[in-house]
Amino acid sequence: MSSGTAHTAPTLAASGGQGTAGDYVVLLKPRVMYLVVFTAVAGLFAAPGEMHPWFGFVTILCIALGGGASGALNMWYDADIDALMTRTAKRPIPSGAILPGEALGFGMALAVASVLMLGLLVSVPAALLLAFTIFFYVVIYTMGLKRRTAQNIVIGGAAGAFPPMISWCAVTGSIDPGAIALFMLIFMWTPPHFWALALYREVDYGNAGVPMLPNVAGRDATKKQILIYTLLLLPAAAGPVMTGTAGWLYAAGAAILTTRFLHDAVCIWKATTRDAENRAARSLFRFSILWLFALFALILAEKLIGIPAFGGLL
Q1: Same-domain check for residues 76 and 195
Q2: C-alpha–C-alpha distance, residues 155 and 236, integer Å
Q3: CATH of residue 26
Q4: Which distant-in-sequence residues (6+ apart) come within 8 Å of 139 by Cβ?
Q5: pLDDT tens digits, the chain, 314 residues: what are they?
Q6: Is pTM beyond 0.70 here?
Q7: What's the domain range around 305?
Q8: 274-305 and 177-200 helices cross at what angle (nearest 10)?
């Protein structure tokens, strides 16, 4: 399917109602949910102010359910191209374990429940931001951008960056510079992370007709963009310090980890053969996951240990 092609429902030999609990868990994209939950927890602790543990638990639960809803709705809409890609062909809908309509109903139910629960029990502003996040990921990214532009990851990356901002908003009732700094960590991380994946999965995306950057602009342009966005990641990594959200432990760890991130990006840029590019891209992709978890872990550790944040310049 080429970019811009209208979505068509996949032809699948599903009997319906045969999906196990494990199949429905897969619909939630649990690997992505781990990241959503962890960054949201860090945002909850990093936010200035106090929140009762019960309301904190409800906030994280709702963000997790909202993230799961987004994953299920994404798999419902993308079932046709998932069936064409090696790494996604065994997902519940392409494999026939769950019907598209069942996934749609499941995702919509979780989306409505998560937003209503967060709004009624914790915070209306946070609930509105959660609703916008689900809408952004499903409608703007999945339906609007993914099949139409090679910039899908750049713009769509905002959806994955909202969770710490939502939990921050649940505590403070507002979006402050510290919340924006946490948002920017994920937002600027997303392009080099996914373009590295796209480099060594170029054939897979090409078979599915998804206009990822290597398939549209070529590998050299992708390598250059990975390096550019990694350089832009440097000020983003400094953001929590600049806003007075993080202290010396985060600053030291972020400096070391981001230097390694930049090293891997330079290795991709300098690679001269496809095999070397793919090896370097795999290395960056894997390390980038560690990088993001580690930076948020450092922020969380500082709050739990009691390390004071710097005064901040913003």
Answers
A1: no
A2: 16
A3: 1.10.357.140
A4: none
A5: 333 443 444 444 445 557 788 999 999 999 888 999 999 999 999 999 889 999 999 999 999 999 999 999 999 999 998 888 888 888 999 988 999 999 999 999 999 999 999 999 999 999 999 999 999 999 999 999 888 888 888 888 888 999 999 999 999 999 999 999 999 999 999 999 999 999 998 888 888 788 888 988 999 999 999 999 999 999 999 999 999 999 999 999 999 999 999 999 999 999 999 999 999 999 999 999 999 999 999 999 999 999 988 876 66
A6: yes
A7: 177-314
A8: 160
